[in-house]
Amino acid sequence: MLQVNLAEDIYYLGFNDRRTHLFENIWPIPHGVSYNSYLIVDEKIALVDTVERAFIDDYLDAIEEIIGDREVDYLIINHMEPDHSGALKAIVHRYPNITLVGNKKTFGFVESYYMKPENIHMVHDDHVLDLGKHKLQFQMIPMVHWPETMVTFEETNQILFSGDAFGSYGTMDGGIFDDEINLDFYEVEVMRYFTNIVGKYCPHTQRAIKKLAGLDIKMIAATHGPIWRSDLNWILKRYNKWSSYDLDQGVVIVYGSMYGNTKKMAETIARQIAVRGIKNIRVYDASKTHSSYIINDIFKYKGFIVGSAAYNNAMFPNVETLLTTIEHMAPKDHLLGIFGNYSWNGGGVKNLKTFAEKIKWDMVYEPIEEKGNMKVQTQEELIKLADAMADKLLEMPAPEKI
Ligand code: FEO
């Protein structure tokens, strides 16, 4: 394995996964993902997080290539999710005298997933671990993305080992540092990683950003995706915008339709919103596009309009799946419109109303429901819904460019 240094004696040990289709067995990763671990070689040797278990053999070999017969003294556990702790047990077997470094919430996870740890070192905010030339300081950032998550700040070179925070989907295709790659490729992948994985925990992310602002950080090394060393603001501004629900002028329109009648209603709305001058309009068929991508645009745009055909006296199942995901993530401050279609008993709009009550977004117009093909009167109502959404969106200030 070609060695990649973040600084003298600090190594990148990342592995690219181009085989897995679904991250967490939920989220599509057509461009793969990387699992990044880091090795610091000093008077004491420390690993920062490990990798997914599929890469254990190559990971152990890569460590040995660098340190030979020396022992690893510490395993810093910033995050226990198995995509990063997958090689923990193998590391403990290979280096039985190793000390696991974590916080008061970490070791319960170690025990429930792997084993009762023998040698542990409990850390807290501002705690410093001295490796020799390199001093490691710890800060807790709970719920970014699990309760035990923390970051490790290497004070000598001012590198923040940030865990999931500031990570991205997408493999490292040769380039590893932000100045080695065209970031256009990562624009969507970084945001999808954020919205899909961390999106539920925006308030916690905001707290973490404020807390870490006190550190003089020169490099951010996350557990997925590029290492940020040239333009830290690229990633920091985006995380700040997304986690503060700073939404742009635009609308996401999603529908579930079997025979095209609900789709026609969606397209009528979309056309009228465009006529009113709104340019960011994304229309999705919930049966075709995975929630991962739709959620991403919901975190981007202020407006959300959802339509559902009735199905077995309920909502269309693919729309229901999306709305359940939205309810779990509970993004804030959206404008909402709902519509639907039925053939006999209904069930689509009825359940959309329940969603609207739970999510508590600002309803711009009353729910609209059609029976069968769209009639002129319903079309007029849909245009009123579109106008009501456009009116609100046009009141928004122009978005700040990032
Ligand atoms: Fe990349 Fe929360 O694990």
From TrEMBL:
Protein family according to the UniProt entry: In the N-terminal section; belongs to the zinc metallo-hydrolase group 3 family.
KW Transport (keyword) present: yes
Required cofactor(s): FMN; Fe cation
Origin organism lineage: Bacteria, Pseudomonadati, Bacteroidota, Bacteroidia, Marinilabiliales
Official protein name in the record: Flavodoxin
Gene3D superfamilies: 3.40.50.360, Ribonuclease Z/Hydroxyacylglutathione hydrolase-like (3.60.15.10)
Native source organism of the sequence: Draconibacterium sediminis
UniProt keyword annotations, A-Z: Electron transport, Iron, Transport
PROSITE patterns xrefs: FLAVODOXIN, FLAVODOXIN_LIKE
GO molecular function, one term: metal ion binding
Domain Flavodoxin-like: 251-390
Tagged with keyword Electron transport: yes
A Pfam family the protein falls into: ODP
CDD domains according to UniProt: flavodiiron_proteins_MBL-fold
